[in-house]
Amino acid sequence: MALAGRQSTFSGSQVAARRSNARVARVARAPAVKAVASSKVKKVVLAYSGGLDTSVILKWLQDTYGCEVVTFTADLGQGEELEPARAKAEQMGVKQIFIDDLREEFVRDYVFPMFRANALYEGTYLLGTSIARPLIAKRQIEIAKEVGADAVCHGATGKGNDQVRFEVGYYSLKPDIKVIAPWREWDLNSRTKLIAYAEEAGIPVPSTKRGEPPFSMDANLLHISYEGNALEDPWAEPDESMFTRSVSPEDAPDKATYIEIGFEKGDPVTLDGAALSPAAMLTALNKVAGDNGIGRIDIVESRFVGMKSRGVYETPGGTILLTARRAMESITLDRGEAHLKDDLMPKYAELVYNGFWFSPEREALQAMVDKTQEFVTGTVRLKLYKGNATVVGRKSPFSLYDPVIASFEDDKGLYNQADAGGFIKLQALRLRTLGVNRHKMLPCIRYNLVSEPYESAWLGCVVFQRQQQEQQQQQQQQQQQQQQQQQQQQQQEHT
Question: Domain Arginosuccinate synthase C-terminal, which positions (predicted)?
């Protein structure tokens, strides 16, 4: 092996041994890291943000697995400059670097389909983090196939939901892929150890990263989330300085803002008459909603891994979009399909939250949801004011709302009010039947028979009723006998 024009005096096996020893020495100088079998990994695609955590993971992969690392950075509208991630990866010896603008695909193929289902996890969470993970996983697998990588790696912790979302996505798209999850393998279990490892490896550590951060953040075009540390006390109110995408409702304009959103087959296509692409639409809605203090929630959610977690979210554009969509559906969906959608929505939301975007059941639900959206076309007008988004108008060429039928005035004979009587009687039939039979149980209630187990209570009631009937029969027989005796006495007196 030639080094700077000089002939090496080492054999091939000696050179390999020296390289191996050098890698061991580098790891030994850093804080202790759990040993990991690495012989089978040749190339790994890392989901890389360029931040401290994923930069440490990059170096750890190189040191621990001795493999080539390919970085992938997704632009999902998180609002950060991404080119520094390229520069940092290059400094760390990465040869293949992918930085992809996925904003349009993210909104068009993930956010909008999810919104067609009106999905809310546990009735409040708009799934901003959950819906981003399938796309990242999908692109990682595509890159792995493109570059011939045999493994993928993510930076999700071993306590959160994201590890499930990423890995279920990986295995769904490439069942034989090897997954590396550093937070489940290494011993860098504190911020201090992480920073020490970074400094030893020559990774720049921003001053803002020293010490425990007040909270962790995750952002994309749909939302931004805040979790951990200062927010772990569910009684503590978040500091106003934390929020970045919305003004406080108290500081929002004193004059209401009116907007009109145009829909086509369930998706928003125009804002105040101007046609916008999916990503541009969500960006514009974020701006107008955030300016009016809309989209903040503070919740405690049930994580898929078993624990409860407090999270604070800003989802300004998504909040008014959901409000407008439901208004559009209110005049274009039949009652049956609307109610069926509402019944299935929690299941759909749970599948997204838990990471089962690529599952057959989610796809089946999506097909049903999309079928209901064929006529969800029209315009919704909203009033935005100090944290509230109020629907003040809706119209559609496919509207099922007929003002003539609904009017309290003359309906031109379209609705015969007398027909309601028969309809009500049929609807009330089961309740009338229930009332009659329950009335028979009243004597049992008086004698406290219903305090026993159900079967005993019912049997006791039947026995009691039979006893009552037997007593009535005996009384009737006695009365008949008395009448017969009286008649016989009268006949004897006459004779």
Answer: 215-432
